[in-house]
Design brief:
By secondary structure, this protein is of the alpha+beta class. It is about 35% helix and about 25% strand.
């Protein structure tokens, strides 16, 4: 019995600490303000039948269906590379594949928002494959929709938790900003649960004394990548998969090996949308934590038509950083991307609302978040990048408070991380904004084509 009380007491202390120790406020898992609503329960109004009511409660589609279009701010021509690739894929042109890299923070690590955008784009323009997936799970909640991964034996280092002392491997974290060091016995197995994947590419780092990675399809060897001795450089090896392959295994045969990820694709025209999230990430991950030359070579190899930079949530509670350093680092990140990919489209996607409990008990927006968004919009314009204001598209100030009180709830008790239904709303908002801009691009292209012939352009109806 004493052990039971001791356990309960420890639990209560742990869930209470975030309410009284500011340094732990982001780890909040329980909201004490909801206790009165549980004790003073009033049944909510129902629809015409209990079945219809439960159907409405559990499906986020009703909220998604009411969304409008919040437009992307796009300087002339800033998204043309991406949209032209979409147009080719939409026409079914052989080999027309659209590659998107979406960098973000914790929601992106769970493929939230990005999975919804991927699904919608692939439904519209074709499924060209899943895209980049880290070689193992750096965090328990790292998930990619449609891919199940099991792994063991890796030493995992995210860019934002890497060593501070300079060394030969510092800053070399791969395209997804997380590195995986393995010795013989380390492995990763990828099983796709939805669309069939037809090609796999693995990425690793050459290093002095490096070992060998073996790749298997349905447990049958495909080939190897030797990371050998020599100067540090990025290595890639890819194979077509046998028909109806259901899983790929990557195994360290001899070591050591520093691996990064697998890139899964199909041979058909369509969209490949890579979700590149790092838990706790902020703009410094891509502005200085990843080695510039290393990242540039990886970006050049990936050859994306669109790069989405989606940070700002974690920065928003550090007002001094926002007011003194954020803009400098955002500019550096964009400089790096522009230098590595001069012809690719770049889009800054602002953070979602981030809530905090106010003294009067209501949930408001953290003060610096609007300043982060304003900086992003201004810098995007200066660098001729597109900009999507997620914060305003979802409702602006106080949205997380509304989402927390919604039924079903759309955000967790930290007022930061969306529930699947909330992520679906944001994903749909972003997709609709992209599609709206794409339709305007097609209209412009059509008008330009008719202007060259001297014929009037037809009136398009959507």
């Amino acid at each position: 019995m004493p052990k039971t009380f001791l356990t309960l007491g420890c639990f209560l202390v742990l869930v209470t600490i975030p309410d009284y120790v500011p340094a732990f406020k982001n780890y909040k898992v329980f909201d004490w303000h909801t206790v009165p609503t549980v004790l003073d329960f009033v049944a909510r109004k129902t629809s015409s039948t209990p079945v219809e009511d439960e159907f409405d409660r559990l499906r986020p589609d009703a909220k998604v269906g009411k969304l409008g279009v919040y437009p992307i701010i796009a300087p002339p021509g800033s998204l043309d590379t991406f949209f032209e690739a979409l147009r080719q894929a939409e026409s079914g042109a052989p080999g027309a594949q659209v590659r998107v890299l979406h960098y973000g923070d914790s929601p992106t690590t769970a493929d939230m928002i990005t999975a919804d955008v991927r699904q919608l784009l692939q439904k519209q323009f074709g499924d060209a494959g899943h895209g980049y997936h880290l070689i193992a799970k750096p965090w328990a909640w790292y998930e990619h929709k449609g891919i199940a991964v099991t792994s063991e034996g890796w030493q995992i280092t995210p860019a934002n938790m890497g060593p501070k002392v300079a060394g030969p491997l510092q800053g070399r974290y791969g395209l997804g900003a997380v590195s995986f060091d393995g010795t013989p016995g380390a492995y990763a197995r990828f099983v796709w649960t939805k669309s069939q994947q037809e090609r796999v590419e693995i990425s690793a780092l050459r290093q002095v004394g490096g070992g060998t990675l073996t790749v298997l399809a349905d447990q049958v060897p495909l080939g190897q990548l030797r990371t050998g001795s020599g100067p540090n450089e990025e290595l890639f090896a890819g194979w077509d998969l046998p028909t109806n392959t259901r899983e790929v295994t990557v195994r360290v045969e001899n070591g050591p090996v520093r691996a990064f990820g697998v890139d899964l694709g199909r041979k058909s025209p369509g969209v490949i949308y890579s979700s590149l999230g790092v838990n706790g990430a902020y703009i410094s991950v891509v502005s200085k934590m990843i080695n510039e030359g290393h990242w540039a070579r990886l970006l050049d190899h990936a050859k994306p038509h669109l790069v989405v930079i989606n940070y700002g949530t974690n920065e928003s509670v550090y007002e001094k950083f926002v007011d003194t350093s954020y803009e400098v680092e955002l500019r550096e990140a964009l400089r790096r991307v522009r230098k590595a990919l001069p012809h690719s489209s770049v889009l800054i996607m602002s953070p979602m609302d981030r809530g905090q409990r106010l003294p009067d008990g209501t949930i408001g927006t953290v003060p610096a978040l609007s300043r982060v968004v304003a900086i992003q919009q201004r810098v995007a314009a200066e660098y001729k990048c597109a900009f999507f204001n997620t914060f305003m598209a979802m409702g602006g100030n106080g949205t997380m408070g509304e989402w927390y009180g919604a039924e079903p709830r759309l955000v967790g008790a930290d007022f930061i991380h969306p529930m699947p239904a909330g992520a679906k709303i944001v994903g749909n908002l972003f997709y609709r904004a992209l599609l709206d801009s794409y339709n305007k691009f097609k209209t412009r292209r059509l008008t330009e084509g008719f202007a060259k012939t001297g014929k009037p352009a037809p009136i398009l109806r959507r």
